[in-house]
Specification:
Blueprint: E1 2-4, H1 11-19, H2 22-27, H3 34-37, H4 47-53, E2 59-63, H5 66-87, H6 114-122, H7 139-143, E3 152-155, H8 159-170, H9 173-179, H10 187-190, H11 196-203, H12 208-217, H13 219-224
Parallel strand pairs: 1-2, 2-3
Helix pairs in contact: 6-12, 8-9
Membrane topology: Single-pass type II membrane protein
Organism: Limulus polyphemus
Keywords: Carbohydrate metabolism, Glycoprotein, Golgi apparatus, Membrane, Signal-anchor, Transferase, Transmembrane, Transmembrane helix
Length: about 230
């Protein structure tokens, strides 16, 4: 079994699921950030590996509404980590995300509105690393669904049901039940950033032209994963 994940599309939950498996529980410390553990050489694989080496493996990935990913990033990394911690820091508690990602550094010291953030996204060039952050790269670019034969596509919007199905299909029902409470940990989950009303609140701050530009940037994600733009125009 192997997974490809896109940041802000259930990556923490996917990694938690994988690292809770008995074989990984014994090999990797459970008190460490699973994102860090996943970057070890034995866990990171190339595009060619997914195409060739993993034949016979059960391959899965999770996706999320493109606008929901952006709202989640804004609320989590900008409003919570950057703006809140720079105005009301917690004494003695270091926040590793207190600095802005490189593409947003020009906004340092400002009150960063969602619209300002989206302007940066719209001006991103996904061929130029300094202009974007991996949290907002289109999901099709991260996991190449047209080139890798995935056995299962889950959605963040139905994550618990999808993980339940995935566990049943893989014979991991007991492990899923044991680790179920750990799967949905992110700040965005607590604030329900995936709800349509939450997304709409933020998309309403954009002009029609801006939301249309944003759609064009993520059009393949909308089409490949059966998400709809018209709901938020």
């Amino acid at each position: 079994m192997s997974a490809c994940y896109s940041l802000k599309a259930g990556s923490t939950s996917i990694l938690t699921f994988l690292f809770q498996l008995p074989i990984n529980r014994e090999k990797y410390p459970q008190n460490q950030d699973f994102h860090i553990s996943s970057r070890t050489a034995s866990m990171v694989h190339s595009f060619r590996d997914y195409q060739n080496k993993f034949r016979g493996y059960f391959l899965f990935t999770f996706v999320r509404h493109p606008f929901s990913r952006l709202v989640s990033f804004y609320r989590d990394r900008i409003l919570h980590h950057y703006m809140l911690n720079n105005t009301h820091p917690v004494p003695g508690q270091r926040d590793v995300y207190i600095n802005l990602p490189t593409p947003l550094e020009h906004l340092h010291g400002q009150k960063i509105s969602f619209r300002k953030f989206i302007h940066t996204v719209i001006n991103s060039d996904f061929r130029n690393l300094s202009t974007f952050d991996h949290h907002w790269v289109p999901m099709w670019r991260m996991c190449a669904p047209c080139h890798i034969n995935y056995n299962f596509f889950g959605k963040v919007e139905t994550m618990m049901n999808d993980f339940s199905y995935l566990s049943s299909r893989l014979g991991l029902t007991r492990e899923f039940k044991q680790g179920q409470s750990l799967l949905w940990q992110h700040q965005s989950a607590k604030s329900n950033a995936s709800s349509e009303s939450m997304i709409q609140e933020y998309i309403d701050q954009l002009t029609h032209e801006e939301s249309s530009q944003l759609y064009k940037m993520y059009q393949l994600d909308f089409e490949l994963y059966d998400y709809h733009f018209k709901n938020f125009r």
